[in-house]
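Section 5.1 Outputs to date
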Amino acid sequence: MAAVVTAVEAAEQAPVPERPAAARRSFPVWRWVILLIAAAYFLIPLYAALRFAGFRAFTQVTSYPSFGSALLLSLRLALIATVLTLVLMVPTTVYVYLRLPSIRRIMEAITILPIVIPPIVLVIGVLKLAPGFLLATPNLLGLVYVVLAMPFAYRSLDAGLRSFDVRTLVEASNSLGAGWPTTLWRVVIPNLRTAMLSATVLTVALVLGEYTVASLDNFQTFPVWIVNFEQNSGPVSVAASLLALFVTWLLLMLIVTIGGRSARKRGGAEVALFSVSTAANVSATKGEPE
């Protein structure tokens, strides 16, 4: 009996043979097929739009006087919406996660409402409730965009909170005498930096591509300018659309690059566009040592 037990213990303690590097890095053929189909699905329309617009149209876009004002308005609204969204959503999401975990399902249902409610209903409600000094200014769109960005910002921040043990860090900070503002600013937010960057990029992409609300409010943002200018010059309008698309792609690539590098340096949360995972889990998935 002792010999059997010794044999079992030796088998449990024996190192598990690792798979060869070629086996770990193998990439099935069907994945290549899916990637090629997805690439063709996205790149062929972009190539057709580029051929239709021509390279000359890209140089003509910036020559129109209304182009600069529309683009600056969209960038200003993106800045307003991003700042307000982070100021409102970060403390709320952290407080619900720590103190009111039972209403997280309710929060998820509430934050999904801007996607369900028709834009015309949202615009009319904002016009009825907004203060008078905002009705004649395009800054009113910034408040509307905060509501529209709420579903994406909340889910990015919630995924960021799940990527580290926020409860233990907050309790340790409180035990050292730090108050709630200090804990939020010096403990929670540094660990949520990648998730906040993800929410920022999603908000900016939403503002730069939103057309319905801006057109209903009669403000000429960049998407509204593209649609209105399409009646005069189709190639220039397509070139402006491609420019907006390329800028959004660059922002998304920037957030993935910055988030991945900071996660590898700190061993914290890593963002892959819309999801947040710990660097340890990522390395374990890839078969690399932590």
